[in-house]
Design a protein that fits this description.
By secondary structure, this protein is mainly α. The protein contains 20 helices and no strands. Helix 2 packs parallel to helix 6, helix 3 runs antiparallel to helix 16 and helix 14 packs antiparallel against helix 17. The longest helix is centred in the first third of the chain and has 31 residues. It is globular, with a radius of gyration of 21 Å.
Length: 436
């Protein structure tokens, strides 16, 4: 009986989820290998300016703004598994083209096209997870996704740093393309998904609903839910501060350690270690202890190390870099898991794709102005001062979340009762009965 109960409670026994999860892990690992390689290529090899560095996140974010909410509608309406397979193949093809980019004029459009494909993939993956995972396992799913995301920060940069000492950044980019093909093959092994039968009635109804109407329904649902709206706005405010400095780490590390290309990779790896440890801890705690405290503390633990890195002087010990990276990872892991768990938990299954599409659009909008401002600020005042100032802004935002958490994130049961419509509740109950 005890073994049976444990098996029912653990997502590791859900074969469909584990295959989808393995595909996600494979793709995410490749993305981190790729990200580090591109930053080293343009920052150290091409020696581009801080403002040109800022154009990379802008080119990646623009498709999210233009396509994010539409991609969410597509994820709710189309076959999620087929959509994810198509995205993996197209991403692999575009990554191969990135290999041959001779300069920024070629690199930026290719990154934008690749990002457009990811804009479709993210809500599809989140919506599929919501469909194949029981309500009581959502925290496990968010934690496992977080472990992959943050664990890739450990293995990706460490192996990437080793690879970059022996090979060129182009080889690391090629590895990402190969891993995307591997992700596609894993998804190809998933023959059927039980929960597609559960949502057959809903899908038949929604096929008769115009896309424009579904798009409006998604925004209407988000705006009427105080809890989801506050979560999204809090994420938007924090992302605005973070993205000012996020793609300027290369500028900072060129000052701190101009001859050591791998130091950035070591810091990212230390961040991944901190994130994985806090995610494992959070998975063991009661998820009902409140969103405000965890989201706010996440921001405090992100902002403090960013300010600390800005205070370091050239030639500072790498131990300080690793320590600040480790603490930053704890904050990042705490925020990441809580934010995604909140969005999944407080959204009916048939709306998940649209809600994550809206999230992609809103947070993507930050990536247009913030990195450009960051590049301009760094060119005018230097990376150190900018890191200190915006690190402290992040800390203040976190303190606001902690102090006003009960106001911004009221009791979940009350919020769900006020917001949820009868039809989603009945569908969710029906899905749980079939799973149970």
């Amino acid at each position: 009986m005890e073994a049976s109960t444990k098996q029912a409670a653990s997502l590791l026994y859900n074969k469909v989820y584990m295959r989808v999860y393995s595909a996600f892990a494979t793709a995410t690992f490749g993305d981190w290998f790729d990200t580090l390689a591109i930053q080293v290529l343009v920052g150290y090899r091409w020696q581009v300016s801080p403002l040109m560095l800022a154009l990379i996140p802008v080119s990646i974010a623009l498709p999210s703004i233009l396509l994010g909410s539409v991609a969410g509608v597509a994820a709710d309406r189309l076959n999620k598994l087929k959509l994810m397979r198509s995205c993996d193949l197209l991403t692999a093809f575009l990554t191969v083209l990135v290999l041959f980019a001779p300069n920024m004029l070629w690199l930026l459009p290719l990154l934008a096209l690749r990002s457009a494909i990811s804009t479709l993939n993210v809500p599809a993956q989140q919506s599929l997870t919501r469909s194949i995972v029981r309500e009581d396992q959502l925290l496990q799913a968010a934690s496992l996704n977080g472990i992959v995301n943050q664990g890739s920060k450990i293995a990706g940069p460490l192996l990437g740093g080793v690879a970059l000492t022996l090979l060129t950044p182009q080889w690391c980019i090629l590895l990402n393309a190969l891993l995307r093909v591997g992700s596609y093959l894993l998804l190809l092994s998933v023959k059927s998904i039980r929960t597609e039968e559960e949502s057959e009635t809903v899908a038949a109804q929604e096929e008769r609903v115009p896309l424009r109407t579904m798009w409006k329904e998604g925004w209407s649902f988000m705006l009427r839910s105080r809890l989801l709206l506050h979560t999204l706005l809090f994420g938007f405010a924090g992302a605005l501060a973070i993205q000012i400095v996020d793609f300027q780490f290369t500028s900072l590390f060129r000052v701190l350690s101009p001859a050591n290309e791998s130091l950035l990779g070591w810091m990212v790896a230390a961040s991944g270690v901190g994130a994985v440890l806090i995610i494992i801890l959070l998975n063991r705690l009661n998820p009902g202890t409140g969103y405000g405290w965890r989201l706010g503390m996440g921001y405090v633990l992100i902002g403090g190390p960013i300010a600390g890195l800005g205070l370091l002087q050239p030639g500072a010990s790498a131990l300080w870099v690793l320590l600040f990276g480790f603490i930053l990872g704890i904050g990042n892991g705490m925020f990441f898991v809580t934010f995604n768990y909140c969005l999944q938990k407080e959204t009916p299954p048939h709306m998940t794709g649209r809600v994550f599409g809206i999230q992609s659009t809103v947070l993507g909008a930050v990536m247009i102005a913030a990195p450009l401002l960051g590049g301009l600020f760094v060119e005018l005042a230097g990376p150190g001062r900018i890191f200190v100032n915006f690190g402290m802004v992040q800390v203040l935002l976190g303190l606001v979340g902690i102090m006003f958490g009960r106001v911004l994130w009221p009791v979940v049961k009350t919020e769900r009762t006020d917001v949820a419509q009868p039809q989603p509740s009945e569908e969710a109950e029906a899905g749980l009965e079939q799973h149970g």
